[in-house]
Amino acid sequence: MAGSADYQELVARCLRGDSKAWSELFRVNFRHAEMVALAPPFRFHAHEAEDIAQETMIELARKLAGVENIPAFVGTVAHNKCVDRVRKMKPVLESDLAHGEDDDPSLDSVTQPETVSPELVDDESLGALLGAIETLGEMCRGILHNRFFEELAYKDIGERLSIPQPQVGVYLARCLARLRTQIEQRPDLWKELEALL
After folding, report:
1. Is 182 in contact with 196 (CB distance < 8 Å)?
2. Which 8-state DSSP code applies to residue 195?
């Protein structure tokens, strides 16, 4: 679809009930909506991008008669649907991370951790560490387990836990900060693990 006249003709055919026109309209614009969800800053997984594109196409079908610029409409709707998904995920992740509101601005500057091998910690310390991890929310436990015990890359963790890849490092740093707080409450364990975290 090159120009405005091409879209106007295609829309007119769609509104007359031409199924081939609908197929063409969706084919061209579905990929556009999908690319919005796959590209930065969202980087959703393929199945999520497809869902967002489908939702965008439903919105386009509902409002087609009043849309003047279809590519702009599709891009805007897809972007807004991505933002809505991120906003819906954020409260779940934050409640899992903090069991409430995250008011600690020092967590925003926590550096990215290195992978820690469980063999570096003796059995007693490992048991205490696992106990401290169990006090964290489900999302934190999943992130820490996948990163440090399964040694997965951020990309793989994001796929497993349905978190956009750029967010994995942020949540990992916050989870480690929470874990550090738990461990600091036990000075004996903290001294043994301080260098590892």
Report:
1. no
2. T
The pair of three-digit structure tokens given for residue 194, joined into one six-digit string: 């301080």
Range 104-193 has CATH code 1.10.10: yes
Per DSSP, helices labelled H in 16-106 are 19-38, 46-63, 70-98
- Token pair listed for 139: 């999302």
Most confident of 109-113, 142-146, 185-189: 142-146
Rounded CA separation 102/174 (Å): 10
What residue ranges of the chain are covered by domains with CATH 1.10.1740.10? 4-89
pLDDT tens readout for residues 166-190: 888 888 888 888 887 877 777 666 6
Q: Choose among 115, 102, 188: nearest CA to 152.
A: 115
- Specify the CATH class of 4-89 in words: mainly alpha
Among the listed residues 110, 111, 124, 109, the one whose alpha carbon sits nearest the alpha carbon of residue 188: 124
For residue 111, name the pLDDT band (cuts at 50, 70, 90).
very low
